[in-house]
């Protein structure tokens, strides 16, 4: 029944030009090394056997026209309607639709949509030139890129069409009082909402090392015990955040403060996309509160710096380290050593002499393990350094990597006289400071990640 | 892939050391089928079943108490006998909790009302008692938890057995380098005299090839029992054989046959024993520390052993008290054993102290 309705619908849903493009959606070559390559798109495989004549034929068609419902609703229209987005469970169709439209918009931003369209048009022009195949290598390249970009565009347009189709279906079902169909379409819409959310996150986290595990380092700023306490609160916040996300947390290094808190600490966060999310936290975090360490109950401002380094593990991009470039120092109690001394202190400090980069590990229970862990940290730091170097060479690289110098203040946590946590980059703010300090950071992270996309688009 | 051997080695080390930490290598039933051992070794806390439980709030109460006790020490132990300071003690407390509590996530969680129960491998009362012993009696941390992490191994230790020192790890590295280039020595019979917890024997047993084995001897029945337990945990029963007895005595059948001889014998001069930090002097077995008037008694005996037991081309490595003993030992060998021992070398430990004497049999 519903199947029949769906079929009849499609006849008035789309303009003919759309169909024209749709027929070829299975036959575009796929280029994995393209400028825009969010992971979700690489899942589609396009067959790579396009003949030159055919390429010329379809490249001459107008690329894609913006889809809309029979009553003229478009995805952009949904966004501008500003429908309230409710929780998945108690959402009505407008809420779902708005959420999906938001995801689609974000994915488009990630793809640098406008730029993609311009590039696609340019490639189409190239493909239509008569002498294209005089240089088969270049032609192949153009052909592949064109196919890849077109594929991406089609996937997004596919999402848009699917959304509008669901909406149309729900409206139709309501008009005809067809409950079963309405229910089914709502279900489909909800499914799509979840799917789109997933694709949105994947699109957000599609930079080179986003999927990696990472190290998070926190260092107390000037200001003695109060800021050391702040550093340990921040570290606790990340531990909780990571655990709530299901990541495995390992303390690598911890220098406790004399009275309370920590001077510095490093944790390892293991899990998919740990770096992609945590990189949003790089920078200086500021706390304002009545210090519990001040007998006069005065208000204090303290700072803690956060660095996040991807753990590239065994990936091929690891920097090669020569053993002869390393100075390995082991901390031992002074004196005779050997049988004279029984200490559980077995810290290891490794210095990479050519760069001066060091790594220390003291939390493992044998020197052997401390050395192995310190080596892993050193490897990551050198990789990070190399990434930063390459980022400077390649101006297209993202902002976050060069910010590792801990220069800028990114977020303010005020516990007195009012309670508020505010991100200074995105202006995202939350008044429940306690929940943030208990690890509820995703709002900040997501808003930062999508804001970074805006920035990239502006730069583009 | 541009991976270097170095990177690869490190990641392998990392993996293996993380994986090996908690898992017993053999089932416990294997322990009963071993050679006649009169002493029953203690099971380290981290290998005991989590049959106890405590309310989270009670456990936190203990933890706070233990932490405050540790913090109150400050640097007073450092000043009195170069013992541990608060920072070290607090870190030990963290490891203690890791060994005792089955799911250590409670450490991070600020959630929960404290009524939930935490599974543990030791009774809460025992925890109070053990930490008191650690602080008040200066019982070594390794005896408190019953194990020491040494190289990538976790070795069971208890009172009566010397806790292996990180310096000694270097002997295994030296042997590992040597046998990787020498097939004959890799397949030969090695001996570790005064094995204690079995650390050297197990470390070497793991780098020997097919046919290679280690005979580990110790005078102390407790040491032999603990070493046997450790050997079984690493499933090296076929590679490491334990013999009870003093130095060369249990190896009479091996004269002129050994591919290698290693030892970390007692080498502290008797007069120095009284000044040792409390963890060592008051708790570790004197027989494993006291090397006689000048600390050289056992070392000189071992020189004779190297002469007698090693086959041509065989290797030896002994740990000493430092530069003075190294020199005296080399002098002794040069003037009395130069017909049999050669290529003598003094090797420094990681702190730069001349620690080991190594050489070969002609």
TrEMBL record, chain A:
Chain segments annotated as transmembrane: none
Superkingdom in the source lineage: Eukaryota
SUPFAM superfamilies (UniProt xref): Release factor
Swiss-Prot/TrEMBL keywords: Coiled coil, Protein biosynthesis
Any one annotated GO CC term: cytoplasm
The keyword Amino-acid biosynthesis appears for this protein: no
Record carries keyword Coiled coil: yes
GO molecular function ontology, one term from the record: translation release factor activity, codon specific
Domain (Prokaryotic-type class I peptide chain release factors): residue spans on this chain: 332-348
Coiled coil: 156-207
SMART domains referenced in this protein's UniProt entry, alphabetically: PCRF (SM00937)
Protein family according to the UniProt entry: Belongs to the prokaryotic/mitochondrial release factor family.
Official protein name in the record: Prokaryotic-type class I peptide chain release factors domain-containing protein
Organism the protein comes from: Vicia faba (Broad bean)
Automatic annotation (TrEMBL), chain B:
Highest taxon in the source lineage: Eukaryota
Sorted UniProt keywords: Methyltransferase, S-adenosyl-L-methionine, Transferase
Pfam (any one): PrmA
Gene3D superfamilies: Vaccinia Virus protein VP39
InterPro entries assigned to the protein according to its UniProt record, in alphabetical order: DNA_methylase_N6_adenine_CS (IPR002052), HemK-like (IPR004556), RF_glutamine_MTase_cyano (IPR052663), SAM-dependent_MTases_sf (IPR029063)
UniProt signal peptide: none
GO molecular function: nucleic acid binding; protein methyltransferase activity; S-adenosylmethionine-dependent methyltransferase activity
GO biological process: methylation
Name this polypeptide is given: Uncharacterized protein
Source organism of this protein record: Vicia faba (Broad bean)
């Amino acid at each position: 029944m519903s199947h029949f309705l769906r079929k009849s619908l499609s006849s008035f849903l789309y303009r003919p030009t759309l169909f024209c493009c749709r027929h070829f959606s299975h036959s575009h070559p796929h280029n994995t090394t393209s400028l825009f390559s969010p992971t979700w798109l690489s899942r589609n495989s396009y067959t790579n056997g396009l003949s030159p004549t055919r390429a010329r034929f379809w490249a001459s068609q107008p690329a894609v026209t913006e889809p809309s419902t029979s009553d003229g609703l478009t995805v952009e229209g949904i966004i501008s309607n500003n429908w309230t987005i409710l929780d998945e469970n108690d959402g009505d169709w407008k809420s779902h639709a708005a959420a999906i439209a938001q995801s689609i918009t974000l994915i488009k931003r990630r793809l640098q949509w406008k730029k993609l369209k311009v590039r696609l048009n340019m490639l189409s022009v190239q493909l239509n030139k008569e002498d294209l195949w005089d240089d088969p290598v270049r032609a192949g390249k153009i052909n592949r890129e064109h196919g890849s970009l077109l594929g991406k565009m089609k996937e997004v347009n596919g999402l848009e069409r699917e959304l509008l189709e669901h909406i149309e279906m729900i409206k139709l079902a309501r008009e005809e009082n067809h409950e079963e169909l309405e229910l089914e379409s709502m279900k489909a819409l909800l499914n799509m909402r979840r799917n789109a959310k997933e694709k949105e996150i994947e699109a957000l986290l599609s930079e080179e090392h986003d999927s990696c595990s990472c190290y998070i380092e926190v260092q107390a700023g000037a200001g003695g015990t109060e800021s050391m306490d702040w550093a340990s609160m921040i570290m606790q916040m990340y531990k909780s955040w990571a655990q709530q996300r299901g990541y495995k947390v390992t303390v690598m290094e911890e220098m406790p403060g004399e009275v309370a808190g920590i001077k510095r600490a490093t944790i390892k966060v293991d899990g998919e996309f740990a770096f992609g999310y945590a990189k949003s936290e790089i920078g200086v975090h500021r706390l304002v509160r009545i210090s519990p360490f001040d007998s006069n109950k005065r208000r204090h401002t303290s700072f803690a710096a956060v660095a996040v380094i991807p753990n590239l593990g065994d990936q091929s991009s690891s920097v090669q380290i020569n053993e002869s470039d390393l100075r390995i120092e082991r901390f031992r109690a002074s004196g005779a050593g050997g049988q004279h001394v029984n200490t559980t202190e077995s810290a290891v400090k490794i210095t990479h002499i050519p760069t001066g980069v060091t790594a220390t590990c003291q939390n493992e229970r044998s020197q052997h393990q401390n050395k192995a862990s310190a080596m892993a940290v050193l490897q990551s730091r050198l990789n990070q350094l190399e990434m930063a170097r390459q980022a400077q060479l390649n101006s297209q690289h993202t902002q976050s990597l060069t910010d590792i110098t801990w220069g800028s203040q990114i977020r303010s946590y005020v516990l007195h006289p009012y309670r508020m946590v505010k991100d200074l980059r995105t202006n995202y703010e939350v008044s429940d400071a306690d929940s943030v300090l208990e690890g509820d950071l995703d709002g900040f992270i997501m808003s930062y990640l999508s804001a970074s996309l805006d920035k990239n688009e502006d730069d583009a | 892939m541009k991976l270097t051997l170095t990177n690869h080695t490190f990641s392998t080390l990392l993996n293996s050391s993380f994986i090996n930490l908690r898992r017993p290598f053999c089932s416990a039933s294997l322990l009963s089928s071993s050679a006649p051992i009169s002493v029953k070794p203690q099971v380290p806390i981290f290998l005991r079943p989590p049959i106890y439980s405590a309310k989270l709030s009670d456990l936190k109460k203990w933890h706070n108490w233990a932490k405050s006790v540790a913090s109150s020490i400050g640097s007073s132990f450092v000043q009195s006998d170069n013992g541990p300071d608060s920072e070290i003690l607090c870190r030990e407390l963290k490891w203690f909790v890791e060994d005792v509590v089955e799911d250590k996530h409670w450490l991070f969680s600020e959630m929960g009302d404290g009524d939930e129960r935490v599974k543990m491998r030791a009774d809460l009362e025992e925890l109070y008692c053990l930490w008191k012993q650690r602080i008040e009696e200066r019982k070594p941390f390794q005896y408190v938890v019953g194990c020491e992490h040494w190289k990538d191994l976790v070795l069971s230790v208890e009172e009566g057995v010397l806790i292996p020192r990180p310096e000694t790890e270097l002997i295994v590295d030296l042997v590992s380098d040597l046998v990787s280039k020498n097939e004959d020595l890799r397949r030969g019979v090695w001996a570790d005299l005064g094995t204690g917890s079995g650390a050297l024997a197990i470390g070497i047993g793991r780098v020997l090839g097919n046919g290679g084995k280690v005979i580990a001897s110790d005078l102390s029945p407790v040491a032999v029992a603990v070493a046997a337990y450790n050997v079984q945990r690493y499933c090296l029963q076929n590679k490491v054989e334990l013999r009870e007895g003093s130095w060369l005595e249990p190896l009479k059948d091996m004269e002129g046959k050994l591919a290698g001889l290693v030892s970390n014998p007692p080498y502290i001069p008797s007069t120095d024993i009284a000044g040792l930090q409390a963890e060592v002097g008051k708790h570790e077995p004197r027989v494993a520390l006291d090397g006689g008037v000048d600390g050289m008694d056992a070392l000189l005996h071992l020189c004779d052993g190297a002469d007698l037991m090693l086959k041509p081309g065989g290797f030896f490595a002994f740990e000493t008290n430092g530069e003075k003993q190294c020199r005296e030992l080399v002098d002794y060998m040069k003037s009395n054993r130069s017909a049999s021992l050669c290529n003598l070398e003094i090797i420094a430990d990681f702190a730069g102290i001349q620690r080991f004497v190594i050489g070969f049999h002609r």
